[in-house]
Amino acid sequence: MAGTGEERKPAELLAAARGGQRRAVARLLTLVERGGGAAEAIAAATHPLTGAAHIVGITGAPGTGKSTLTGALTTLLAAEGRRPAVVAVDPSSPLTGGAILGDRVRMEAATGAGVFIRSMATRGHAGGLALAVPGVVRVLDACGFDPVLVETVGVGQIEVDVAAAADTAVVVVTPGWGDAIQANKAGLLEVADLFVVNKADRPGASDARRDLDLMLDLSEVSGAAAGTGADAESRPAIIETTATEGEGVQDLLRAVDAHHRALKAGPGLQARRDRRFVAEVRARLEHVLIQAADDVLVDVDSRSGATPVEAARHLADRFLDTDTPR
Ligand SMILES: Nc1nc2c(ncn2[C@@H]2O[C@H](COP(=O)(O)OP(=O)(O)O)[C@@H](O)[C@H]2O)c(=O)[nH]1
Ligand SMILES: [Mg+2]
Question: N or C: which end of the chain has fewer CB within 10 A?
Fold first, then answer.
C-alpha cells in the first residue's frame, strides 16, 4: 500500500526521520539491521549527514548498572534540552528478549522524557554486530540525535571494539568482586576515557577507585613504552555514581562533555573518527571476503591431493591479485 510507513523509500523515510518522525527513525534502523540493498542505500544517504553527534560508549560487566546509568544520564540530557539517543546492545537472544524488557523498565524515565532508545540483540544481524552498530549510530547521528550513547557488555572482543569505536568510552565497574581487575583483563582499561564506579552506595567504592588508580599507574608505564599513547589526552577521570538515586550522574555528564571538548580542541576527535572509519571498512571487508570464501569453498575437493594450504592459496588467487605470480 503506497503511503504507509512500510512502503516508503529510504530517502523518503530519512526525510521524515530528520523531520522528527520517530517511527521513521525506527523503520530506518530496522532496515539497516537487516542489511542488504536498503541498508546500503541508507548508509549512502546518511553518510554525508553525519559527524555532529558525540558518540559515547558505555561498557562494563553485566549487572554493573550500565542501563540504569544510561537511563539517568539521558534523562538529565533531555532535561537540559538536548536530544540523546541510546543504542543498547543486548546479550540476550533475540528469541527471549528478556533483558531487553528489563532495560525498557530501567530506562522508563528516559523514554518518558523523550529519549530515543533502540535495543539490539547481539545475534541476528547481517554481518554481525561490528557492522550493524555503526550503521545504526550513523542513522541516529544523521537524524540529529546528540549525544548517541552505545551500551555494550564489555566481555567479548567485539563488544570491546564497539565501545572503543566511540568518541568517549566510559567503563563502568562496581565495588567488590574485583570488578576493576576483571575490566583490566577484558582489555577495557586501555579503551577507557572515563571510569565510573557505580553502586557507590555499597561498601568498597573507594577500594575500587584505588584498584583502578593502581592499574592506571601501571598501564601508563607500559602504554608509553609501547607508544600507544598517541591520542591519550589525559589520564581517565574516575567518577563515583549511584545510578539508582541519580547521584553523581551530573558529575559524569560534566566529565563526558569535558572529554568531548578536549577531543574537539585537538586532533583527538578526528583521529578517533578516522580509526572508526578504518575499523568499519575492515569489518565490511572481512564480511565480503568471508562470503567470497564460502562461495569458492564449494569447489574444494579433499581427494585432489592438494594440502589445505595449497587449496586455500589456489582459491585465494581467484579473488586476490590474480596477476601476481606466487
Ligand atoms: N545498589 C545499587 N544498585 C544499582 C545501582 N545501579 C544499578 N543498580 C541495580 O543493578 C542491577 C543491574 O542494573 P542494570 O542497569 O541492568 O545493569 P547492566 O547489566 O550493566 O545494564 C539492577 O537491579 C539495578 O537496579 C546503584 O547505583 N546502586
Ligand atoms: Mg544493560
Answer: N
Distance, in Å, from the CA atom of 297 to the CA atom of 315, rounded to the nearest integer, reads: 8
Give the model confidence (pLDDT) of 236-259 as tens digits: 999 999 999 999 999 999 999 999
Ligand 1 pocket test target in 170, 198, 244 with most atoms within 8 Å of CB = 244
- In words, the CATH class of domain 50-266 is alpha beta
Buried b (16+ CB within 10 A) or exposed e, 264-292: eeeebbeebbeebeebbeebeeebeeeee
107 CA distance to ligand 2 middle (Å): 10
Tell which wins on pLDDT, 29 or 180.
Answer: 29
Phi, psi (deg, nearest 5) at residue 52: -85, -35
Going by CA atoms, what residue is nearest to atom 7 of ligand 1? Answer: 65
Find the helix packing angle between 22-34 and 37-46, rounded to 10°.
Answer: 120
| Closest atom, ligand 1, to C-alpha of 103 | 16
Question: Domain limits of the chain?
Answer: 1-49, 50-266, 269-326
pTM check: above 0.85: yes
Which residues sit with their C-beta closer than 6 Å to ligand 1?
Answer: 60, 62-68, 106, 198-199, 201-202, 242-244
What separation in Å is there between the alpha carbon of 64 and the centre of ligand 1?
6
Q: H or E segment at 85?
A: strand 85-90
Euclidean distance between CA atoms 92 and 326, whole angstroms: 46
